[in-house]
Amino acid sequence: MDMQPPPFAAATATPAPAPALPIYRRLAEHYLSAIQSGTLAPGDRMPSVRDLMRQHHVSLSTALQTLRHLEEGGWLEARPRSGYFVRQPRRAAIRPVGEPNVLAPLDPAQYVGIHEQVSDFIARRQLQAPAIDLSGMSCAPELYAVEALKNAAIRALREQPSLLTSPMPINGNVTFRQVVARRALNAGIRIGADDVVVTHGCIEALNLALRAVAQAGDTIAVESPTYFGLLQTLESLGMRALEIPTSPQTGISIEALELAIQTYGNIKAVVVVPTLQNPLGCIMPDSHKERLVALCERCAVPLIEDDAYSELADGDVAPSAAKVWDRSGNVIYCASLNKVLAPGMRLGWMTSGKWHERVKMLKFAYTRANEEWTQITAANYMGSPAYDRHLRRLRGNLKEQREQMAEAIAGYFPSETRLSVPDGGVGLWVELPRGLSSKAVFAAALDQGIGVSPGVIFSNSDRFDHYLRLCCGKPFTHELDQALRKLGGIVERLPG
Ligand SMILES: Cc1ncc(COP(=O)(O)O)c(C=O)c1O
């Protein structure tokens, strides 16, 4: 069937792409959303180069670039002398990762050992420095607004040269806190600048939150699998992680959590990542967030919400934070700008409900205030419309990279591999076939210059040893494609 798309500028179900993208990318996104929504189905013929030029008033090279870009992304195939056709994405054939057994007995609260295990993987990766590193969770530096941030930093120092030599405001720069409070409205959180404590990334916020509500020897309920940094933090604080089954689709099982709270009686806090959970990538439905907040409130267990990723969710409307349903100050909300604004500035923040004064005291006692020039730089940039443009561009790039990587995994990994492609973020969670050990894949991949995160570090048990987490924060290049081909070969050949 010959498709006659609407003019490029016509309103579509999806919001207009960021204007800063080159025209061919915007045109490609226009057709990509038609493919993803099913308006253009597999087997449909794409408009010809000539049609594209006429309908969208673009040049020959833009029309060609658009089609090639979609072809490289695996969305189109060129048929000799017939033109371009929509392809059946290979990843459509790959099954999503499995659901956990929520009825299985929970592990006894254990905590010793993960620190050594994580440090060992990090040390081995540093020693061999892989040429293609898919193990982190940050975006390639070029995806951030390098030039604009540099200018904002220069302006901050030019206007206030004494910034580097003066003492810093204890709870953070007030303009930065105002900007943060204003932006928190996007996630549905209504707070003032005085409710914000600025931190060194989300990890410091989590540390402060845990210290505010619990102490060494206490048990903390966490998702399973969970971010290995949280397991390290708990271990370093002498606290015990109780892992609660977590669905790759809907997040922590509220039934299993309720049962655990009733059974164990000594759970001092619950830590969750409701949006774009690491490593699963799932987004908890709003109804679950509401039930989770209500459960923690009813049982008088503080809820620590880790929201490091929600600004990277696809689309222009950020998912609501669980904090939105907090009526009593029982939710401590921790956020980060490291993934969205600039990993090099190590800025995070938190708003701590009932524990606000205690958190302020702990922040002062443990680390003192953050550097002020980073906060002023961030406030300069985040307070301008350029920040929203940057976020739209970043989300668009990540979505495209994620889909290209998923397509490559579907093509190169054995067919029994399972993968769920999340609606945002920088990670892909891959279930290996034949119960293959992620430790073996990690070692073999590193020998071939590829870094991956083995599933085993996301739990205190071995339960996730047959998973890998792969980062899709880097542009999809030929080298990356070839690395995924090699990785698929390793997974194919290793004995299960
Ligand atoms: C879920 C989660 N929480 C917290 C952090 C730490 O964030 P930051 O780098 O802002 O300290 C990370 C980092 O990867 C993460 O994935």
From TrEMBL:
UniProt-listed InterPro entries: Aminotransferase_I/II_large (IPR004839), HTH_trans_reg/aminotransferase (IPR051446), PyrdxlP-dep_Trfase (IPR015424), PyrdxlP-dep_Trfase_major (IPR015421), PyrdxlP-dep_Trfase_small (IPR015422), Tscrpt_reg_HTH_GntR (IPR000524), WH-like_DNA-bd_sf (IPR036388), WH_DNA-bd_sf (IPR036390)
Swiss-Prot/TrEMBL keywords: Aminotransferase, DNA-binding, Pyridoxal phosphate, Transcription, Transcription regulation, Transferase
Molecular function terms from GO: transaminase activity
Domain HTH gntR-type: 21-89
Protein name per Swiss-Prot or TrEMBL: 2-aminoadipate aminotransferase
PROSITE patterns: HTH_GNTR (PS50949)
SMART domains referenced in this protein's UniProt entry, alphabetically: HTH_GNTR (SM00345)
Family according to the record: In the C-terminal section; belongs to the class-I pyridoxal-phosphate-dependent aminotransferase family.
